[in-house]
Amino acid sequence: MNTTRRTVLKGATASGALAALIGAGALRPTHVLAAEWNKAAFEAKDTAGALKGIGAGTPVESKDLILKVPDIAENGAVVPVDVISNIPKTTSIAILVEKNPQPLCSEFDFANGAMAEVSARIKMGQTSLVKAVAKADGKFYVAQKEVKVTVGGCGG
Amino acid sequence: MSSMNRREFLQMLAVASVAGAALDARPLLAAGNADALYEPANFGNVHFLHFTDCHAQLLPIWFREPSGNLGVGGALGKAPHLVGEHLLKAFNIKPGTHEAHAFTALDIAEAARTYGMVGGFAHLAPLVKRLRAGRPGALLLDGGDTWQGSATALWSKGQDMVDACKLLGVDIMAGHWEFTLGDKRVMEIVENDFKGKIDFVAQNIKTSDFGDKVFEPYSMREMNGVKVAMIGQAFPYTPIANPRWMIPEWTFGIQDDNMQKTVEEARAKGAQVVVLLSHNGMDVDLKMATRVTGIDAIMGGHTHDGVPQPVIVKNAGGQTLVTNAGSNGKFLGVLDFDVRGGKVQDFRYKLLPVFSNLLPADAEMAALIERVRAPHKEKLEEKLAVSEGLLYRRGNFNGSWDQLILDAIMEVQGADIGFSPGFRWGTTILPGQAITFEHLMDQTAITYPNATLTEISGAQIKSILEDVGDNLFNPDPYYQQGGDMVRVGGLQYTCDPNAKIGHRIQDMRLKGQPLDAAKTYKVAGWAPVAEGARGEPVWDVVARYLRDKKTIAPRKLNQPKLLGMTGNPGWADS
Fold it and tell me: Which of A66, B123, B257, B287 is most open to solvent, judged by the fewest CB atoms within 10 Å of its CB?
């Protein structure tokens, strides 16, 4: 374990870490700080509504959109999600949990040329399909996988 | 006489003895069988000895294999989901032999008395020595679940097993229940006791913040001029099946992608043989073998399946052998590879049952065990009660030991319903045998032993049973957790293993009345995984019950009515 690095980073402020990401070109400050809150999409109560809110409609499945989630969540409160889009001209990635009360968890925008790769921690109340939706060159693509949320205990 | 003929002769002698001879002939029988059983012909130039899931059983024990290990979906009728006569037939094992007894529950009480106890580190030690003598460079692999399962392992925080494994000569180890001693204790053992002696490997444990590796993913050794890599796989669902708060900074999971990368890295560094020392459970191993290429053998555990021969899985990279080596110190797997021209050409495998009567105790190991037990001897040997019937744990839905625990916690706590975890470890008591405190600890020795009493609704009860049922019967092994169904006391139900989650558990009844989804019921349980759980250790609750009863009548098993399982070769009525 790299204790030194961990200690240093724990000491750093969150804004410092965010500034580093912005500096590296991963996030556009205008979007992070000033973009209009997509109220309709984030407050939608079902997946269809959330997809409509981000302008996706019915996205098509793509093998170039890679969604990495666990088969069974170790902790429903913080489920790690990694999304990588190898689709050229990807400009945004959204993460949705179908059975959450409000399915849209997050939406990331990328400046032209930025690597379309995001890592996030999402909250899940129950077993559900998790969807990653990417926008590339004006079209929408989807990758999805079921993540099981279980009561635990009893194994082995 | 060539060695092959001699062996055949001795096997014949053994069969003849069992068939016709009285117990007086046992010394002759024992001598014959020891050679027949324990001298698998030397083969090849790369050798692995493998035991797994010994659950801290240092002494010889009785152990009943399951008569219920249902396979559903693609696993129906295939190893490891074969029991009793189905298993004997599939692996061509003659009924009425040492091996038939070792691999099945057939005529358990009678057969146990005929063939004697199984396992015990003092008996495993001479077997390891004997096999190593004919296999220079052989590596001894421990699949994990070694530091938990007995009173002395619990009280010494695993130290008795750590010392016994060092003396036994373990080279590489993987883990699962080890983590229930807490992350600090695990690191203390790995960084001190094991340093330079035993490599604790796990490719699938990372720190939850940055994803840094916690343990070395694999160990590279050279054997008879051949480079071999042993990759470790911890039980992927440890933080779900066991308390996550004991290992708060680590994350697990199956991690196929990283497994593939690790195999490729080991191959790039010159490994001609790659073995995965796995605690996935056999169904997960079988699926992984179809997805990850470049592994010569997955030597597995966790599901405690004593599988006599490997399952050969064909995949894009060739083939992968998948083995599972049983539990409780009862078996030692021997895998020999013939490696020439930079790759595996052929193999031989045998899963050897450890019969204590056939393997004279190793003096040094016996002394170590004696030393470990000495301070606790009186407490361990306290006779709590005498059991009139057979007490065992293994089985998909219930075991008589679990029924006894359920009866005890429900009566002592005044509960309507009892839940006991579907653990697969725990030893067996023969009819007429005294139950000692040590035997009770064999069933209950965990670091979160609290007995609990909670009031929960009928709807919650249904949802718990569905959840655990899906861990066992989900047709996709990657969603299975490798334990058995939660044992249920008081409540009757019907189970349809082929149904989907939400529909498997039907017709739940309490004293004949349908369970009311809205009503609350008093439920007794133990082994809560949540942090801060309270309650008396379950062994104290059960010990009081046993001391009070003095004689334990044969248990009446509360089993669900099963749907769609008629003729399933993973089920035998016995």
Answer: B257
Q: Is-contact B538 B526, C-beta < 8 A?
A: yes
> Could you tell me how many CB contacts below 8 A there are between chain A and chain B?
85
Closest to B503 in 3D by CA, of B512, B494, B511: B494
Q: Which residues of chain B have pLDDT under 70?
A: 1-33, 574
Q: Is residue B447, in this structure, part of any structural domain at all?
A: yes
Candidates B208, B240, B327, B480: best to mutate against A (most CBs of A within 10 A) is: B240
Q: How far is A40 from chain B (nearest CA, A)?
A: 32
In tens, the pLDDT along A41-67 reads 999 999 999 999 999 989 999 999 999
- Going by pLDDT thresholds of 50, 70 and 90, the confidence category of residue A35 is low
CB contact under 8 A, A150 and B471: yes
Which residues on chain A are in Cβ contact (under 8 Å) with B464? 151
Q: Give the structural domain span for A23.
A: 1-35
State pLDDT tens for residues B365-424.
Answer: 999 999 999 999 999 999 999 999 999 999 999 999 999 999 999 999 999 999 999 999
Check which CATH number belongs to the domain holding B365 and give it: 3.60.21.10
Residue A23: φ, ψ to 5°: -60, -35
Question: Is position B27 within any domain?
Answer: no
Residue type, B571: W
| Chain B residues touching A150 at Cβ < 8 A | 240, 467, 470-471, 481
Residue-wise pLDDT for A62-112, tens only, equals 999 999 999 999 999 999 999 999 999 999 999 999 999 999 999 999 987
Do strands B491-495 and B561-562 pair parallel, antiparallel, or not at all (unpaired)?
Answer: parallel
A2 contacts B241? CB cut-off 8 A:
no
**Which residues between 191 and 210 in chain B have a beta carbon less than 8 angstroms from any beta carbon of chain A?**
207, 209-210
Are B281 and B309 part of one and the same domain? Answer: yes
Q: How many CB atoms lie within 10 A of CB B208?
A: 19
Contact B479 A156 (CB under 8 A): no
Report the pLDDT value the prediction gives residue B344, as an integer from 0 to 100. 98
Do both A110 and A129 map to the same domain? Answer: yes
A82 and A17 within one domain: no
Q: Give a yes or no: residue B109 inside a domain.
A: no
Candidates B252, B257, B421; nearest CB to A153: B421
Is-contact A142 A131, C-beta < 8 A?
A: yes
Whether residues A50 and A19 share a domain: the answer is no
Within-domain flag for A142: yes
> What pLDDT sits at residue A151?
79
Same domain, B166 and B280: yes
A155 closest CB neighbour out of B241, B479, B501: B241
Six-digit token string for B29: 């029988």
The total domain count for chain B is: 2
Task: Kindly list the distances between the CA atom of residue B68 and the CA atoms of A83, B64, B308, B389, in Å, as whole numbers in the listed order.
Answer: 42, 11, 17, 19
Q: Looking at the structure, do residues A75 and A118 belong to the same domain, yes or no? A: yes
CATH classification at residue A95? 2.60.40.2470
Same domain, B387 and B355: no
Domain boundary among B327, B347, B369: B369
**Once rounded to an integer, what is the mean pLDDT over residues A29-43?**
69
Nearest-angstrom CA–CA distance, B566 and B376: 48
What is the model's pLDDT at position B36? 77
Q: CA B116, CA B96: separation in Å to the nearest integer? A: 14
Residue of A8, A81, A154 best to disrupt the B interface, most CBs of B under 10 A: A154
Q: Quote the pLDDT of residue A91.
A: 95
> What pTM, to 2 d.p., does this model score?
0.91
Could you tell me if B176 and B327 are in contact, meaning their C-beta atoms sit under 8 angstroms apart? no
How close, in Å, is residue A151 to chain B by CA atoms? 7
B467 vs chain A: nearest CA distance in angstroms?
Answer: 6
Domain co-membership, B421 together with B507: yes
Residues of B in contact with A148 (CB under 8 A): 470, 479
From the CA of A138, how many Å to the nearest CA of chain B? Answer: 31
CATH code of B438's domain: 3.90.780.10
User: Hey, are the CB atoms on B241 and A80 less than 8 Å from each other?
Assistant: no
Q: What is the DSSP letter of B490?
A: S
